[in-house]
């Protein structure tokens, strides 16, 4: 099965946090990293009074079921030092989300796939489009179509991996 994973951070060297998270994804049980987008500097969403984020999307192949994958990703976040408290949409040491799991639609107390707001967020859509602009977000349309409906101002692709 293929899963699309969103990554974001804006604390303690966010670029390095994403690189570390991607390295940990390469070690994920029963899974293989197939592709990684470029890194993008993006303005904060929701709570705008914080540092810019660095975001990326990773495509993996996995035999893990969606909830098992979620638990593994949460374990990576915890191992990296993420504490789940504080303000919603606030600063993050690392945030790792399942954006899509194949074309499945899952709506449980623990997991909603596709990610419920991914079609509204340029910081998800741009790196996802870099990997596959024609992929369909179940119930929302193609990534390419969704990109025409979001604001792209302030987003910068980091070609050389720097954050200067």
Would you kindly provide a written description of the structure presented here, covering whatever features stand out?
The strands form three sheets. Strands 1, 2, 3, 4, 5 and 10 form a six-stranded antiparallel beta sheet that branches. This protein has a two-stranded antiparallel sheet with strand order 6-7. The chain has four helices and ten strands. With 164 residues, the protein is α+β, with helices and mostly antiparallel strands. The mean pLDDT is 91. A hairpin with a 3-residue loop joins strand 8 (136-137) and strand 9. The radius of gyration is 15 Å and the shape is globular. 26% of the residues lie in helices and 28% in strands. The chain has one domain (2-158): 7,8-Dihydro-6-hydroxymethylpterin-pyrophosphokinase HPPK (Alpha-Beta Plaits).
Short description:
The protein is of the alpha+beta class. It is built from four helices and ten strands. A hairpin with a 3-residue loop joins strand 8 and strand 9 (141-142).
Radius of gyration: 15 Å
Residues in helices, as a percent range: 25-40%
- What does the largest sheet look like? 6 strands, antiparallel
- Derived from helix and strand composition plus strand pairing, the structural class reads alpha+beta
**Overall residue-averaged pLDDT value:** 91
Spell out the helices and strands N to C.
Answer: EHEEEHEEEHEEHE
- Relevant CATH superfamily: 7,8-Dihydro-6-hydroxymethylpterin-pyrophosphokinase HPPK
């Amino acid at each position: 099965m293929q899963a699309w994973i969103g990554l974001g951070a804006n604390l303690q060297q966010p670029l390095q946090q994403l690189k570390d998270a991607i390295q940990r994804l390469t070690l994920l049980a029963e899974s293989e990293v197939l592709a990684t987008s470029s890194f993008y500097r993006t303005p904060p969403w929701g709570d705008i009074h914080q540092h810019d984020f660095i975001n990326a999307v990773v495509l993996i192949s996995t035999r893990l079921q969606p909830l098992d994958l979620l638990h593994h990703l949460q374990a990576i976040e915890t191992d990296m030092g993420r504490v789940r408290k504080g303000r919603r949409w606030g600063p993050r040491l690392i945030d790792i989300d399942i954006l899509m799991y194949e074309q499945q639609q899952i709506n449980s107390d623990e997991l909603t796939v596709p990610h419920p707001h991914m079609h509204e967020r340029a910081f998800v859509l741009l790196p996802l489009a870099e990997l596959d602009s024609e992929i369909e977000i179940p119930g929302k349309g193609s990534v390419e179509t969704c990109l025409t409906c979001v604001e792209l101002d302030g987003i910068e692709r980091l070609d050389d991996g720097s954050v200067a």
